[in-house]
Design a protein that fits this description.
Elements: H1 2-17, E1 146-156, E2 158-166, E3 178-183, E4 191-202, E5 208-211, E6 214-217, E7 219-224, E8 234-240, E9 249-254, E10 264-275, E11 282-291, E12 299-306, E13 315-322, E14 330-333, E15 336-338, E16 352-358, E17 370-377, E18 384-392, E19 426-427, E20 433-434
């Protein structure tokens, strides 16, 4: 019966065409390659791949969070997602970019764009290609007699905390052997982003102090003339102590000179920039520091590119001032007087001031960034500012990962627990399949 043989032969050919050898997969039918052990074809099996949904043969994971950089929204784990981060692979929650080149300062080896690398630049945040240094104190001329940029950044949940104490002995006739700086009120889970010590001495040099018994060496910020004591020049220092500040507690400073006459110290302050991880607002902080004194002449510091959009919540300005005592001196911020005729009386002890002013009542919102201008005039006093900052909260422009958000890694594909054996039915007569 040739017709029957023809039908059977045609059916067998059809079955052969649909078999596993042709590389095709019938939906719902299990074949040996239905589970792909290397989903992204990068040579790393899914179970070991830190980004199984996207090829990353190098398995790079800069922040060590077990999520490959190719799948990680925040590759450096600094709280700022990569799409907004100006330094994606080095943590810089502050996003400071002093020269405005869209490259975060921690990623930028020339923060003032003067073609002199920061490592050898004697004024690393103010352009000075000539590197002129008339007094050979390793501080460029353009950084002398002025406060210079230290940081300018928009920080998720960021705030500035400051504390200070006077350490001079000459005014009170009491030698100050130690300065216990008490940090209080930081959130328990605060992330310490930056911490610096600032101090000043008169008639001597003291580059190294002790913080809780550990030596800390500062960078010289500059010098000023004698502040009406006939002792000698003032020298200002800054030391980065971020790794030593862990949160609330007492941080005791020793090693500063404190005498009843002759060379002496002025005081010391601790400034801490921290992030409150539970705060949704993005806040702006700008700091300038240095060494600045002119008797009877207005001492002006301009904090620039300060955002103050509609809906901002707070605005404050902070000053550290050396040689502060009860005498006639004034402070204006944007032309508005603060502190009357003795703005810097030595509010943390004779010869040192840590002054914080709420400027919000005189700081109306605006659509564009603005300047905040501080002017200190030492008329009857001989004060020397060395630190000025501004903080404006809720300026809301940095996209961050909220604390309850998770990173987005491709899910791991697991093989079927028990492979299903395919059922193949055999053809019977006239092309009818048999069970």
């Amino acid at each position: 019966m040739p017709t029957v043989r023809l039908v059977v032969a045609s059916t067998l050919l059809a079955l052969a065409a649909c078999g596993p050898d042709n590389g095709r997969h019938v939906p719902g039918e299990f074949t040996p390659d239905a589970y792909d052990s290397d989903q992204d074809d990068d040579g790393v099996v899914n179970e070991s791949d830190n980004c199984p949904g996207k090829a990353n043969p190098d398995q790079s994971d800069v922040d060590g969070d077990h999520i490959g950089d190719a799948c990680d929204d925040d590759s450096d784990n600094d709280g700022v997602i990569d799409m907004s981060d100006n330094c994606k692979l080095i943590p810089n929650t502050d996003q400071s970019d002093l020269d405005g080149d869209q490259q975060g300062d921690v990623c930028d080896d020339d923060d003032d764009n003067d073609s002199v690398p920061d490592a050898t630049d004697n004024c690393s945040t103010v352009p000075n290609t000539d590197q002129a240094d008339a007094d050979n104190n390793m501080v460029g001329n353009v950084c002398q007699g002025v406060l210079n940029p230290l940081l300018s950044g928009k920080i998720p949940g960021g705030h500035l905390y400051t504390v200070g104490l006077a350490t001079a002995g000459r005014y009170t006739d009491v030698v100050v052997a130690s300065a216990p700086l008490q940090v209080m009120g930081l959130p328990a889970d605060a992330q310490i982003i930056h911490a610096w010590l600032h101090w000043a001495v008169i008639g001597t040099t003291t580059p190294t102090v002790n913080l809780n018994g550990v030596p800390v060496t500062g960078k010289i910020l500059g010098i000023t003339p004698d502040t009406c004591w006939s002792i000698g020049i003032n020298t200002m220092y800054r030391a980065d102590v971020t790794s030593m500040i862990t949160g609330n507690g007492t941080y005791t400073i020793t090693g500063l000179p404190s005498t009843l006459s002759g060379p002496d110290s002025q005081g010391i302050s601790l400034s801490v920039i921290y992030r409150d991880k539970n705060e949704p607002d993005t806040n702006f902080i700008e700091i300038k520091d240095g060494a600045y004194y002119q008797q009877g002449v207005p001492i002006t510091t301009v904090l620039d590119k300060v955002p103050h959009p509609a809906g901002y919540k707070t605005a404050k300005v902070t000053h550290f001032v050396a040689d502060a005592q009860p005498a006639n001196d004034t402070l204006t911020i944007d032309g508005i007087p603060y502190g009357g005729n003795d703005a810097f009386p030595g509010n943390v002890g004779a010869m040192w001031d840590v002054r914080v002013d709420d400027i919000m009542p005189n700081f109306p919102p605006g659509d564009t960034d603005t300047m905040v201008t501080s002017t200190v005039t030492a008329s009857g006093d001989c004060v020397a500012p060395l630190f000025v900052s501004v903080e404006v909260t809720n300026i809301g422009t940095v996209v961050i990962l909220k604390s309850n958000e998770t990173q987005h890694a491709a899910p791991t594909i697991a093989p079927p627990a028990t492979p299903v054996t395919p059922v193949v039915r055999r053809p019977g007569r006239n092309g009818v399949y048999l069970p």
